[in-house]
Amino acid sequence: MVKKRYILEGKLLTPLITSSPVMKKGPVRIKVLRALNDMQRYPLRSYPGKLVKGERREPTVLKGFRGYVRITCYDWNETRAREVIKTYLLKDYLGRGTCEGFGKIQWLTYREEEGKTQLRVKKRKLRIRKGLGPNYPLALQRLLCALMLHDFVQTSKHISKIYVEVTIHDPEIRVACQRHHEQPVEENTLLSRVKYYDKMAAYISRRKTKKVAQRYDYKNGKIDFEKLAKEIEEKQQSAYKLYHYIYHSKELKRIVESMSYGRKSLRNHLLLMVNLAIGDFLKGKLVLADEKKSQQRPSKEWENTQRLRMLRCIYSPSMSNADSREPNQLEDREGSEHSRGKDSKKKAVR
Amino acid sequence: MLVARTFKRIKIQAKTPIAKPGNGVIRGGNTTNLLLAYNEQAEGKAGSRYMVKGLRGMLNHAMMALAQQQGIEVCHSSDKRETQAGVRLLPEGFHPNGSCFPENECIKHKIMGSIKKQSLIRFDSVIVVSDNLKGTFEDAQKIHIGTENRTSLMYKTKKSIQNFKDRYIGGRLIFTIELLGKLTKKELGFLLKGILYMPELRWGRGGNNGAGKLVLENIQLQKVRLERTIVKGKVQEETKVQNLWREMEEALQSW
Q1: Are strands A64-66 and A68-75 parallel, antiparallel or unpaired?
Q2: Is the Cβ of A106 closer than 8 Å to some Cβ of chain B?
Q3: Chain B: closest CA distance from residue A217 (Å)
Q4: With contacts defined as CB-CB under 8 Å, which chain A residues touch B22?
Q5: Residue contact A86–B1, C-beta within 8 A
Q6: Residues of chain B contacting residue A51, judged by C-beta atoms under 8 Å apart
Q7: Subunit contact A108:B35, Cβ cutoff 8 A
Q8: DSSP designation for A212
Q9: Residue A6 — φ and ψ, nearest 5°?
């Protein structure tokens, strides 16, 4: 099936008052043109105003456009598209201020064109992992640790986002976290990567602004920040433990990442950064120069072993939940299973 | 493809010796020009079409004056009661624009609307072109367009400060008011009386210097059927007009 394009064109007799020359409403696209053949140049502007002495500011001055109008409807369904065109053909005016005579149109031509076939390319959506994959190189693990710890220390721009500063033992990671808002930075260092992924994650997540006055919701109970900092400090040596802790933390979910973007939590920001870095590493975009070549990029052998491991995970039920659980939790579960088994035996005896 | 709709309109023919319904002073320039609607390059600078403004506002003020004369409280053109200093802006016999809606809606608000409600009438755009051009135009009316050179003087010494120019129009023109909804007889009567009151006021600027006088020549209430068809890719338009004299007389008598 090929989509058809239904085009209605007209001339503007009076200036059309809108904020921008391109408008969209469902399948319909309205565009103001300088000439019917000229698609590239910006249409001519006009600024009608009212007779107020000494005042020609915003409420008295209106922004309008002169030229031609093209209405295109791009649809599979022919009858539906023609009905849409009919509604516009009946109209004499478009835009704002029509009661005063602005936006008058003289319809000129109508035609139907066959559109191009568009192949939809399916893009893989970025998903936040439940747990980290097995056997990541050490350089990547250090980078992930730095990414997860970067907001828990004082920088030139802000204090620790959990109010209590976490003492980082590794000197290089500590410097990278403390200076990630400063300029200039050397390229291909840990600091530059932390800075890049911080900006990248903020760019992806920060779409709509919402200014908030509080870092977290006090009504649902206070957060013990000292305990939180202590627990993060204990897990800083292992990227796996730290990721698991942040993923399951309910406190970090309540804390806001930025005061001007109140919709996004600190947990999501940290996890997004980590997942972006892992995604880049698996694609081969991220090259870690400070490690050996064997550890830089996943080799074919490493990939084969990972595939085999995955297959084993699928076919053997005992290995399926091994990665994303903490050892303490597994022990508890085993204990509970034992106790259940005992109970069931007891029941059977009765 | 065929589309059609029927509506009512009031067609008015008027005459003005000189009127300046301009776009206001443009910053940086010394001419008060008319609002440019469009121009075609083939006809050059003289073929530029201008849009005539200010008729809707004039009718609004005419309705206000008529209601004040008859002792009826209606909406004022402004929605402000007083300034920040506490000086009262609203004259007696009026309430702020849109404050009567939805309870106790006045007759002017029913017709003209406000920011809270859509208006029931629409002024068709009046596009004029200079009468120096030859030929006839379907989309514009021919009228005399000229410029007046003026000088501004100092208060006591009468020394000239600077020259400036005023664009003005003069002649006969037709403007139409489209009725977007159903109007009752009283509402239509008030609207027609408002139009008849318009010559008492001045149109545009320079009213104290003799400009902006409007003389009504002919008023018609019409029923119009508009049809648009597409023939070989081109849009064609056809209108059928019917005069409604009796309905107009009844409306005038009801108010």
Answers
A1: unpaired
A2: yes
A3: 38
A4: 51
A5: yes
A6: 22, 24, 54, 204-205
A7: no
A8: -
A9: -105, 120
CA quadruple A335, A340, A342, A345: dihedral, nearest 10 = -160
Would you write out chain A's pLDDT as a tens digit for each of its 350 residues? Answer: 677 899 999 999 999 999 899 999 888 999 999 999 888 899 998 888 765 555 555 556 788 999 999 999 988 888 999 999 999 999 999 998 899 899 999 999 999 998 776 667 777 788 899 999 888 899 999 999 999 999 999 999 999 999 999 999 999 999 999 999 998 888 888 999 999 999 999 999 888 889 999 999 998 999 999 999 999 999 999 999 999 999 999 999 999 999 999 889 999 999 999 999 999 998 888 888 655 444 455 566 666 776 676 666 665 544 444 444 444 544 444 444 444 444 444 444 44
- Nearest Cα to Cα of residue B173 among B8, B10, B61, B11: B11
Strands B215-231, B31-32: pairing kind: unpaired
Task: Give me the half-sphere count of Cα atoms (radius 13 Å) on the Cβ side of residue B153.
Answer: 5
Cβ-defined contact of A52 to B123 (cutoff 8 Å): no
Mutate to test the interface with B, among A7, A11, A12, A13 (most CBs of B within 10 A): A13
Whole-complex ipTM:
0.90
Question: CA end-to-end span of chain A, whole Å?
Answer: 70
Residues in chain A with CB shorter than 8 Å from the CB of B204 are 51
In this structure, are strands B94-95 and B74-75 parallel, antiparallel, or unpaired? Answer: parallel
Name the residue of chain A whose CA is nearest to B237's CA: A107
Single-letter amino acid code for the residue at B11? K
The residue type of A132 is: L
Q: Tell me the one-letter amino acid at B230.
A: I
Report yes or no: A254 and A223 within 8 Å, Cβ to Cβ.
yes
Q: Is A101 left (phi over 0), alpha (psi -120 to 50) or beta?
A: left
- Say whether residue B20 is in contact with chain A using an 8 A CB cutoff: no
List the single residue in B23, B37, B121 with the smallest CB-CB distance to A49.
B23
- Whether A55 and chain B come into contact, CB under 8 Å, resolves to no
